[in-house]
Amino acid sequence: MRGKRTATGAALVTGALAVAGLVFAPAALAVSPGSATINADCGSFGSGEATITATQDGTAATMTINSSAITAPIGLSEDSITSTLTLVNASGGTTSFTATENPEMAAGDPVQVGPLPGTVASGDSLEAYGGSLTMTVFGITITCTATAPQSPGPFVFD
Fold first, then answer.
1. Sign of the Cα pseudo-torsion (127, 74, 117, 32, in order)
2. Which residues of 36-59 are buried (b: 16+ CB within 10 A; e: fewer)?
3. Terminus-to-terminus CA distance in the chain, angstroms?
4. Tens of pLDDT, residues 17-48
5. Which of 93, 105, 116, 149 is the most exposed place for a label (fewest CB within 10 A)?
6. What mean pLDDT comes out for the span 106-114?
7. 100/93 Cα distance (integer angstroms)
8. Which range (9-13, 48-52, 102-106) has the least confidence?
9. Which parts of 100-139 are beta strand (E)?
10. Cβ distance 90 to 123 under 8 Å?
């Protein structure tokens, strides 16, 4: 009988510690909104709607850009586009997200770059309008800019 009481007591202590761990665990950080839409002008390489998707893990954030309006002019291998997305911070300055990350794309496929990593601070409010996306493909630099503020609004980081 004594062994059962010890096992029951140990189970209760373990359960209480698990519940306390959940209560005191830090809340997951999140960026809001998780995605935003812009109208992008990439000059002679195309223009139209693009979606920027944001994620956050502490001070690390990533951005992924997709656009069916802007297409690959030729077939592109995986990780062949060097991209920098520069967003304007409402408190001043800019924040850049840079990487050589893209899926393989056939000529005419929608353009996708990212995830592009960068560093953010709690409270950062980042907007594409006033910033730019530069993509370098085979030594050719393509610069895209937003023609209006992003919708539904800037990315705000926890």
1. positive
2. bbbbbebeebbbeebebbbbbeee
3. 52
4. 333 343 344 445 699 999 999 999 999 989 99
5. 93
6. 96
7. 24
8. 9-13
9. 110-119, 125-137
10. no
Structure tokens belonging to residue 72: 């690959």
List, in sequence order, the alpha helices (H) in the chain: 2-24
Looking at residues 85-111, what average pLDDT do you find? 97
The one-letter amino acid code at 16 reads A
Confidence at residue 69, expressed as pLDDT on a 0 to 100 scale? 85
Query: DSSP class of residue 107?
Result: T
Cβ-based neighbours of 89, under 8 Å, separated by 6 or more = 95, 124, 125, 126
How much is the pLDDT for 29?
Answer: 67
Pairing outcome for strands 155-157 and 125-137: antiparallel
Global confidence as pTM = 0.81
Maximum CA pair distance of the chain?
82
> What pLDDT is recorded for position 73?
84
What contacts 125, CB < 8 A, 6 or more positions away?
Answer: 89, 90, 91, 154, 155, 156, 157
Nearby residues of 67 by Cβ (< 8 Å), 6 or more positions away: 40, 48, 49, 50, 51, 110, 111, 112
